[in-house]
Amino acid sequence: MKRTKEIFVENLRHLRESSGHTQATFAEKVGFSVRGYQKYEQGQSEATPDIVDLFSGALECHAKDLLMDPNELNTRSDLIASIVQDLGALDESELRAVRSLMDTALAARTARGAKLS
Q: pTM of this prediction?
């Protein structure tokens, strides 16, 4: 099992890269020197709750996205909880788009004769 520090380091790098930031642009965004930021991404500096909050805010994600092993979101209830939490960050038009996708998926499921639970 991976340690929390290893998970944080991997998730931080992945989320930073996914957001289109280099280490330099992300360091600037959070008010760090490049070297100061690199210490977090290399696991040389401890990620305090304030740092996790700062980085998750700058990455526009939840703290859990930095701290949890993505492979641990493997149960149906974990997945549903994660989706519900993410929905809270959407604006009204984005929620309508999600609703439309859900309606389409549920209609297709019903047409296949699958039961809704």
A: 0.62
